[in-house]
Specification:
Blueprint: H1 7-10, H2 21-32, E1 37-41, E2 56-63, E3 69-76, H3 82-96, E4 109-116, E5 127-130, H4 147-153, E6 164-169, H5 180-190, H6 202-208, H7 216-254, H8 261-280, H9 285-292, H10 296-303
Parallel strand pairs: 3-4, 4-6
Antiparallel strand pairs: 1-2, 2-3, 5-6
Helix pairs in contact: 2-6, 7-8, 8-9
Length: 304
Amino acid sequence: MKNLIRFDWAIKRLLRNKANFGILEGFLSELLEDDIRIENILESESNKETAANKLNRVDLLVKNSKGELIIIEIQNDYQADYLLRKLFGVAKLIVDNIDEGMPYREVKKVISIHIVYFDLGVGNDYVYFGSTTFRGRHKHDLLRLSEQEQEIFKTDQVTKIYPQYYIIKVNDFDDIAKDTLDEWINFLKTQEIKEGTTAKGLKEAKVKLNIMMLSEEEKKDYKGYLETWRDTESVIVDNYNKGRYDGREEGEANKEKYADEKVKEEVMKEKTESAKNCMNNGLSVEMTSKITGLTEEEIRNITL
């Protein structure tokens, strides 16, 4: 086991402590290239723990160097339809933090940050940024804010009103830190902090995220988290490989007029075993359904 604990575990436990805000503030400041200060952790229905601790998410209210209040969602979760899950998460976050009768102009800006340790989309980079813009269909110009709108929204760009997205594909990092953000991503990937690092928050992380600083109860919880994480990765990889095999088998079967019932029975048997393995490792019925392809009702019947 490495000396430093995984960031995705720490963010749901240690980094919620105000005394450790400097670590998170450092990470956010490097990513957003701004001076970020955490005001508080937001508590909402969408930010609660699941039974198996599979949803690694924290919602923050922060203030930037201009004094603007921004809601930041940081999330890390295995999910087949992750890109749509991102959209749902931001929408729910906005709804959870708007009061009845509040003018829309008071809706806070949302920045959605996703640290992923699995394949997501196809691309050559490891840090991606997304925002909303409106371009003319005929003249191809960008829609801008009027002077009155700029006064209302306190910004001069339409894109700054809408949610912004960051995706950090940790496993695609090439292990060569070219700037301070890369120093952070190297830590996210390796749980190691090299000597001479200058990235904000990392020196503090090197001390406070040392596994020796954990209580015995926290060490036990962390060890269990690592075991569950490895089991989940194994289940996903195994089912991915099996899916490719089943796909080839299905393709061959489609060449024939009638399917081989014995093959179908074997496939169902393997899916059933895989579902039991998922549930025994603490995965939810919904997640098990996504991994195995079985319906939630079939899974409940299997595990009764």
